[in-house]
Amino acid sequence: MSNIQLGHEAHQSTQTRYPVCFLAHDIDVPMNVGSFFRVADALGVEKIFLTGSTVVPPNAKIKKTSRSTEKYVPYEYSSDPVTIIESLKSLGYKIVSLEITSESIDLAALNMLPTDKVCLVLGSENYGIKDEILALSDITVHIPMFGVNSSMNVASACSIATYEITRQLRNERLS
User: Fold this and answer.
1) Reduced to 3 DSSP states, what percent helix, strand and coil does the chain have, rounded to the nearest 5?
2) What's the pLDDT score for residue 9?
């Protein structure tokens, strides 16, 4: 049998959800927000919190980029990220900010247990995560960069970090 590409009809949804949520603060590009929804749907994220100036559905660019997954991934908007973070902490979530800082660790060194609940904080494309939010974070992680540029698109970084977090929550080892 040869290796052939499967069509969309071959996909069987498991509806698996992990105790992982996103907090997206001041994300002004709707295509990035749409990508968050698509990643959340694909990788089993339970909810997205949109805060600050983040673009919210309904929005044609979010819908197009998300491929309509904003219909399936629960989300909530609040102008104040601090209130959301404090609420999540009271529910036992670890606040993990994705940002290059003086204290951030390599994403690969993150050590999530299958019983952990995680809120991945994503910041503005231009300004990153505000100091006020970083101060509330339990840990800050970064993705090592090997090229000339010191950062990548927030949606791409979200995809990488979410895959690693859910992999760890599944307690899978890299081969």
Assistant:
1) 35, 20, 40
2) 87
Please report where in the chains the tokens 């907090």 appear, as a residue.
23
Measured CA distances, 15 to 12, 42, 80 (Å) = 9, 10, 30
Distance CA 130, CA 99 (A): 10
Phi and psi torsions of 22, nearest 5°:
-110, 145
| pLDDT per position as a tens digit, 100-147 | 999 999 999 999 999 999 999 999 989 999 999 999 999 999 999 999
**What's the pTM?**
0.95
Using only the alpha carbons of the chain, give its radius of gyration: 16
Contact 60, 119 (CB under 8 A): no
Question: CA dihedral defined by 18, 51, 66, 111, rounded to 10 degrees?
Answer: -30
